[in-house]
Amino acid sequence: MADTRQRLIDGAIETIRRHGITGTSARTIAATAGVNQALVFYHFGSVHELLEAACLAATEARVAPFAARLDEVADLRGLLDLGRRLHAEERSLGNVMVLAQMLAGAQADPELAKATSAALGLWIRPIERVLDRLLADSPVADLVDTAGLSRAVCAGFIGLELFEGVDPAGAHAALDALERLAALVDVVQELGPVARRALHAKLRKSAT
Amino acid sequence: MADTRQRLIDGAIETIRRHGITGTSARTIAATAGVNQALVFYHFGSVHELLEAACLAATEARVAPFAARLDEVADLRGLLDLGRRLHAEERSLGNVMVLAQMLAGAQADPELAKATSAALGLWIRPIERVLDRLLADSPVADLVDTAGLSRAVCAGFIGLELFEGVDPAGAHAALDALERLAALVDVVQELGPVARRALHAKLRKSAT
DNA sequence: GTCTATAACGAGATAGAC
DNA sequence: GTCTATCTCGTTATAGAC
């Protein structure tokens, strides 16, 4: 059957989610997928290459519906709402956890690093686009780097996901705190023209 | 010698930094430490327990001088400067990387999770203290949760550290973007009383 | 394409000499 | 306290039957 490839990809993702990168091997993946261990090497050549393929495929599948919802966001408040919903969904569907584990494994492995970076890019690009759109006419527009900010958001999600694994209550408090901080930017956006100009001048001065 | 324990602890940290959690074993640790592999089990009982001890010891050693410097910070701008210096130092000394790897391994392992959470607490508590101190008389004081914010900062550092392993330029851009965002809070802090009251009222309204 | 069998090796852990 | 030797198991990967 041609869907053995797919079963292996799904099995790889599920194994990373359940046992982490340290508990992921050709045997554990094959057991999860319900296929023979040797098929990992027949179809993908190595565990490595299977992980790379699985990481990219799973991320693509997860980003696609998210990107569509991003395009419907009208303001920063809506973006925060979407972010919280996404975070809740990720706790069960778990693509962020997979990326975090891949990222950990990639630190000492240039090949994994390349694949993981590509997968991360799938999240980063749509987030950067929506930030560009929403901050276009903001008083902080020319002082905020959306390319950097989108990467910071992704890094934050990953850090929080790992944090949640060892301290769920702490991670929840952290997310709440970040939302309130982001609300600050939202409030600044809605300030009157006088306040905006004052703030703008101050920001310019402090941006050196 | 009694310093074999210490050599193993140092070797464990160095091994995690060099080979990640996936490349860390009794054998690789012993090789790095220059001692016999069996001594891991004689001194610590298991690789697991060695990792827990090493993680806590290394974090304590790294946090102690940092906590002293935190107490000397006078304002938010100074805190940001210290954060950037810390980040640069961490790239070479690497305690954050160790924590990130431990965190990844802890996701599927309750015992490691407990030790890692304890080590993270060593970073979180002094950060929370300085945030409490600096934001005490800020217009956003009662709208910012310093407990959550300190955890978000730590999670962010860890996410950025992992990010840097696969995309150094992107991680750098992310850090810059975050600093500019934090500067926004700093600017708000220095607003005049009229603007502060206006902002405060808006924040209150939007905090529901 | 899928299976069994197996090679070659590294893992955690222990026993026992020194 | 440190070493060698060893046990048992899981790991990647391949060879070859079907």
What report would you give on this structure?
Two copies of one chain form a homodimer. Chain A has helices spanning 4-19, 26-33, 38-44, 47-71, 76-93, 95-106, 110-134, 146-166, 168-189, 193-206. By secondary structure, the first copy, chain A, is mostly helical. The mean pLDDT of chain A is 91. The radius of gyration of chain A is 20 Å and the shape is elongated. Chain A has two domains: 1-45, Homeodomain-like (Arc Repressor Mutant, subunit A, Orthogonal Bundle), CATH 1.10.10; 55-206. The interface between A and B is large, with 69 and 69 residues. Chain A binds a DNA duplex (18 and 18 nucleotides) through residues 1-2, 4, 25-27, 35-43, 46-47.
In short:
Chain A is 81% helix and 0% strand. Chain A is mainly α.
Beta percentage of chain A is under 5%
C-alpha Rg of chain A (nearest Å): 20 Å
Please report the number of helical segments of chain A.
Answer: 10
Distance between the termini of chain A: 62 Å
As residue ranges, the low-confidence spans of chain A are none
Biggest chain pair interface: A-B, 69 and 69 residues
In total, how many beta strands of chain A?
0
> What gross morphology of chain A would you assign?
elongated
Q: Helix coverage percent of residues of chain A? A: over 70%
